[in-house]
Amino acid sequence: MRRCVILKAFLSVAVMYAVFQSAPVWADPELVVDDDGVECPGAGFTTIQGAVNAAPPGAEIRVCPGTYNEQVTISRPVKIKGENGAVVMPASMAADTTSLRTGFSIAAAILVKDTTDVKIEGLTVDGAASGIFCGPNMIGIFYRNASGKIKHVAVRNMKSLPGGEGCQSGLGIFAQSGGGGTSKVEVEDSSVHDYQKNGITGNEPGTDIRVKGNIVTGIGPTTGAAQNGIQIGFGATGRIEENTVINHLWSPCVSVSICGYVATNILVYDADAMRIAENTVGKGQVGIYLVGNKGKVEGNNVFDTDVWDGIAVVGDNNKVEGNTITNSDEAAIFLEGNHNTIIGNKINEAPVGVLKVSGGVGNVIEGNHFVNILTPILDPPPAPGGSPTPFR
Question: From CA 356, how far away is CA 374, in angstroms rounded?
């Protein structure tokens, strides 16, 4: 009798185990989009927006190769994953949202708003057919009080029609917070180029943006908007690491004596405790421009700076350490502020190694290696000129 009870108990456990093993593992659903039904026969949707509208939270939307003439709005947690050849290229773009700070109209190719956990991966976003002259402000991907991750995307041609090049608009990727909302966004391993004003931007308190491993390329000498490759500013937080940022030059800026504004490869403006590290930046009027406090500029490779400085730091308690700075037209490092540390940098070929504006206190400059430098350290009085032009 006892053996029978034990055997029954064993069989019950075995049956439960078998049922457990054979039970389906529930996964987030996948929705498939194909614009013409050729690449992915049987796809349930012909537009990305249609799939987004039908998707439950957590769904993955697979976008098959094709050109999608649409502006997309996302307000729920989903993953958009583009296959090779999936291009979002809206024609005749129209305003679909506004700036949280200024209220100005914005036309975003992809708008993510008031949600979290939105991942966009593998898509190309192209503004070449936008039809926008100067306004509304054109943005490739806009996270507006929203959070998530952008990875392996290409964003290009966010710029006005001919004649509108001077407008301070045209952004590749933008994260913005306002009204008590937040935006926590990661931008990784992506390509951003041929924009009018900024490549990747994060602005306003509540925004935390981590920018890592991207290639950001300006359009080169331009008489229009003074470009910035990567910008974090106006109370936003974040990190800028391991990016390659090149080719930001404002053509009217040809000499220190007549240049009031500059284009920058990396700009941190009115943002504190920022880390800018292990980036490669070249061919700009300022390679890295930090306006803030308690920031760290570490291990960057900065080369070929026209007119102005390789690294410019304006603020207090910042650290500039272990950077390699080559071929700067004015100075390798410009410093204005108090209690900053400039240490262990390798500086080659510049009229001045460290241009330290007189009047600052508590600054430490030591352990730097100067080669082909006429004046290693110079303390001039403050002089106007060379201001960045952040987007806001």
Answer: 15
Instruction: Show me where the domains of the chain are located.
Output: 257-392
User: Could you give the CA distance from residue 342 to residue 331 in angstroms, rounded to a whole number?
Assistant: 14
Using CA atoms, how far apart are residues 38 and 40, in angstroms rounded to an integer? 6
Burial class (CB in 10 A: 0-12, 13-18, 19+), 183: buried
What confidence tens digit (pLDDT) does each residue in 356-389 have?
A: 999 999 999 999 999 999 999 999 887 767 899 9
Calculated CA dihedral for residues 159, 160, 164, 170, nearest 10 degrees: -40
What is the rounded CA–CA span in Å between residue 340 and residue 322?
A: 14
Query: What are 51-101's pLDDT values in tens digits?
Result: 999 999 999 999 999 999 999 999 999 999 999 999 999 999 999 999 999
Non-local (6+) Cβ contacts of 119 within 8 A are: 78, 79, 80, 81, 148, 149, 150, 151
* Residue 14: Cβ-neighbour burial (10 angstroms; 0-12, 13-18, 19+): exposed
Q: CA–CA separation, 297 vs 288, rounded Å?
A: 9
Alpha-carbon distances, residue 10 vs 1, 14, 16 (angstroms): 14, 6, 10
3-state helix, strand, coil in the chain (%, to 5): 5, 50, 45
The verdict on whether omega for the bond into residue 136 sits within 30 degrees of 0, i.e. cis, is yes
Half-sphere exposure of 89 (CA within 13 A, CB side): 13
Tokens 């060379």 sit on residue: 386
Closest to 120 in 3D by CA, of 42, 173, 44, 41: 173
CB 267 within 8 A of CB 237: no
Contacts of 238 by beta carbon, 8 Å cutoff, 6+ apart: 202, 207, 208, 209, 210, 211, 232, 271, 274
